[in-house]
Amino acid sequence: MDLRAGGCPAFGETVGVSLASAIRSALGAAADPTIAPGQQAYMKSAMPFLGVRGPEVRRITRELVREVGVKDAETLAATSRELWDDATHREERYAASELLTFTVLRGDWSLVPYLEHIARTGQWWDHVDGIAKRVAALHDAHPGTTADLVRRWSTDDDFWVRRLAIISQLGRRDRTDRELLAEVIEPSREDREFFLRKAIGWSLRDLAKTDPAWVRAYVERTDLSPLSRREALKHLA
């Protein structure tokens, strides 16, 4: 499976298009135009919303995958890419991200170009944060190559790609590579961008759940922004 080229690959095309169409139709049927403007305003989104809440988007997506009978990684990934690239409403992109959560795609290295594409074209925290766990799974499946990947991302000109590198180990708990975390934080440590400072604090706060001593020591010896420091120590006495 290779999603580096634009659009969707040819494999699974018939089923993939059918699933994508079914998801679009179901989202449209579930739309609530009374809440859509508020959702769009909250997300500061240029792309409009249909007015479907997040849990409902996830439910619709997963139920339709079961109903259509899609089980292979290629079709799920192709459908996700189609929904993402052809989206006219933000919920379609949320559905695209949800398709990547199926177990058959966990740790699939061929998704890397597409995950980076999501970060570069999504350009907002909901989309970037929504794929962080996909990168965390790559850390488990391909530790060395994923470490090299996030090191590269951590110095990217696009701060959303850097944010993805920083939060890429969320939820790994005792499996977190502490040295790597510090390494990917460093290029953004003095950056004034709010979403980078928040990501630094978040990644440290998450690790503090299982290794508070390391986080305290890191914060003490590192010149962090007040926001990053406050977020990192938020739940530590």
TrEMBL record:
What domain of life does the native source organism fall in? Answer: Bacteria
The protein's matches in CDD domains, at most eight in alphabetical order, are given as: AlkD_like_1
Query: Which InterPro entries does the annotation name?
Result: ARM-type_fold (IPR016024), DNA_alkylation (IPR014825)
Name one matching Pfam family.
DNA_alkylation
Write out the coiled-coil annotation as residue ranges.
none
Name listed for the protein in its UniProt record: DNA alkylation repair protein
Organism of origin: Nocardioides jejuensis
